[in-house]
Design a protein that fits this description.
heterodimer; A: mainly beta; 9-stranded antiparallel sheet; 3 helices; about 35% strand; B: alpha+beta; 5-stranded antiparallel sheet; 5 strands
Chain lengths: ~270, ~130
């Protein structure tokens, strides 16, 4: 399956983009824990959570998307009504979350050995609905779980936030792009460091003010990642999901920027 | 290749019927027990407790036909007991169920439009104004 997926990606890419594509597997080349979800690779998606009926056409529901990082952290949804929809315009490919009840979740991912993580999330909300929209969150709710992280948009502050916490409260620990409506492309690239009390974020290629408040202590936890809805039950994403990469460690340039440009190309975003 | 999932369907059920409706969704092959198809809490002003629960999903015409036939009293041949139901449980749920079906291309805004027509909004989570 992975071979076909890589073939499709390379076939659509320029030489420079091919280099970017090669950057993503390198993120996990040394056995790094994490996840890589790529809706542009049809070979990784199935209509049912058991993985028996492949996604083949625009409009098919997605009950399972395989993790391409090699860690087996696949994301699924067993309830049919809660599944997002695969969409394509012939060039771009995304999962459409309906702003009501669609979401995906992985099994628990063990990050208990590290306190440094990189997260790249590519979404494009299409409607200003709800009091917040959760894009990808490690644990059922960052407010309640030590050693968690999350990316979402908050309507009260109109901020795109990248939170991470150790034992401390997550409030004020975030990097944020402030005062932007939710609708539109949002490529969020963050590194989180609990002991270093640091959350960084590049939003659509531009660095925003980091979060430097005390994150407390300890490592990240052992939780599922919820995509498109907090804990599968709140703050639904209304719009497009182009991909997710999470890996252990503070990914540095040029690998980070290569990964960022690869994801930007997937969502048709010019950096 | 074209998809068989040509429809978008929104369903809303009173809170009192939620458990039975979730089991019915399982019985019709749209969920697995214990069922959480109706997972979005709703009320008139967004406050607790929810008075209704809703869902939106992609659907095939066959599923809509199944619901339509059931609404007319033609229940499918299902072993209801396997889903903690009896055939007698079904009519009341179907009578209370709001169903709105549109082409799949009209997903955007479908759920919100049905809620507006029913004078319902999402119940806000307990965390308060801030997500964190």
């Amino acid at each position: 399956m992975t071979g076909l997926g890589l073939g499709l990606g390379l076939g659509l890419a320029s030489g420079r983009a091919s280099g970017r594509a090669a950057a993503i597997p390198r993120l996990f080349a040394n056995g790094e824990q994490g996840i890589w979800l790529d809706p542009s690779d049809l070979s990784t998606m199935f209509q049912d959570s058991a993985g028996t009926t492949p996604v083949t056409a625009d409009g098919d529901p997605v009950g399972l998307i395989l993790d391409k990082s090699g860690n087996g952290n696949h994301a699924s949804r067993s309830t049919a009504s809660l599944r997002p929809t695969y969409k394509t315009d012939g060039t771009k490919h995304w999962l459409l979350f309906d702003g009501a009840d669609d979401s995906l979740a992985t099994g628990s991912i063990d990050f208990t050995g590290v306190d440094k993580v990189t997260q790249i999330t590519a979404v494009e909300p299409t409607a200003d609905t709800g009091t917040a929209q959760a894009f990808a969150e490690f644990s059922a709710a960052i407010a309640s779980n030590a050693g968690s992280f999350a990316m979402y948009w908050d309507k009260v502050s109109t901020n795109f936030n990248a939170y991470a916490r150790g034992t401390a409260s997550p409030v004020a620990t975030h990097a944020a792009l402030k005062s932007r409506g939710v609708v539109g492309a949002a490529l969020m690239v963050s590194t989180y460091d609990i002991s270093g009390d640091l959350s960084t974020m590049r939003f659509n290629g531009v660095a925003v003010a980091p979060g430097t408040a005390d994150k407390g202590s300890g490592n990240f936890g052992n939780y599922p990642i919820y995509i498109g809805r907090r804990g599968g039950s709140a703050y639904p994403l209304s719009g497009k999901f182009y991909g997710l990469i999470v890996r252990t460690g503070l990914t540095a340039d040029p690998m980070l920027s290569q990964s960022e440009r690869w994801m930007a190309a997937k969502m048709g975003l010019t950096l | 290749m074209s998809t068989d999932w040509t429809l978008s369907i929104v369903m809303v059920v009173p809170a009192a019927q939620r458990d039975t409706a979730n089991k019915l969704a399982c019985a019709l092959g749209h969920d697995v027990m214990p069922g959480r198809t109706f997972s979005v809490p709703l009320s008139a002003d967004g406050s607790e407790p929810p008075t209704h629960y809703g869902c939106r999903t992609a659907a095939q015409q066959s599923f809509v036909d199944l619901l339509t036939a059931a609404g007319q009293g033609e229940l499918p041949d299902v072993s209801w007991a396997d889903f903690e139901l009896t055939a007698g449980d079904i009519p009341a749920v179907l009578a209370a169920l709001v169903i709105d079906v549109r082409p799949a291309g009209q997903i955007d805004g479908h759920f919100d439009a049905v809620l507006a027509a029913q004078a319902l909004v999402l119940v806000a989570p307990d965390e308060g104004a801030s997500v964190a």
